[in-house]
Amino acid sequence: MTVQLTLEVWGPEAWNLAAGGHAAAGWEGGAAALVPGEPTQQAVTYPALFLLVVVGSLVPVIPTGALVSGAAVVALHQSVPALSLAAVFGIATAAAFLGDVTLYSLGRRGVGSRNGSRWLERLRAHAPPDRLEQAQHKLRAHGVAVLVLSRLVPAGRIPVMLACLLARMPTREFVHGNVPACVAWTVTYGLIGILGGVLFPEPWEGLVAAIALTALISVAPPLWHRLRKRTRKETPAR
């Protein structure tokens, strides 16, 4: 009798809605349980960021700038954004600095050896003669200050580093110029990530925007340089 009266009061549609609400809540709770918490995310993200930036500094094929921008987007959506962003900035700067100093030390061994080294040859392979000549000219004109600009210009880091090696710049002097260069690099790409995170409400949207912008920054200058070079070759001398 009680069950019948309850069904008559609530009605079948109300019971269906209530059951659906409980099912949806169950699904949402299960989905939330699958998403790792912030401590787990940070325990994975921070070491991965450090490792990838170090490797990307040694082997210049990993888009390290996009990694920093993406990490900044994720940090912006954490419960304490300021602390997470500070961690991303510090880790990326330290990793870039360690990678640069390690690569420079390996290159110095090749410069000081009669037979050279594979690391020095790799640096030469990533530094076209015209870019190397420009880097050597800027190094003579501006000294270690050119290291800051080389970190911000796409494909500019390796030619300037090779120019420093060929000029036999001491490691200590290279370190003095590389510290502000790594800081400026991290701040630049971090701000790109913050911009993407602020403009878009969803983290994945900001992540896609930041990666797209860093990719555009990395690809556009080399393409423009090649286009100008090709145009100069095709233009007949007067």
Automatic annotation (TrEMBL):
Keyword Nucleotide-binding among record annotations: no
Membrane topology designation: Multi-pass membrane protein
Main location: membrane
Membrane spanning residue stretches: 48-76, 83-106, 179-200, 206-224
Pfam families assigned: VTT_dom
Boundaries of every VTT domain copy: 77-193
InterPro entries: DedA-like, VTT_dom
UniProt keywords, alphabetically: Cell membrane, Membrane, Transmembrane, Transmembrane helix
Keyword Transferase found: no
Subcellular localization(s) per the UniProt record: Cell membrane
Similarity field: Belongs to the DedA family.
UniProt cross-references to PANTHER family, sorted A to Z: INNER MEMBRANE PROTEIN DEDA-RELATED, TRANSMEMBRANE PROTEIN
Protein name from the UniProt record: Membrane protein
Organism this protein belongs to: Streptomyces daqingensis
Source taxonomy: Bacteria, Bacillati, Actinomycetota, Actinomycetes, Kitasatosporales
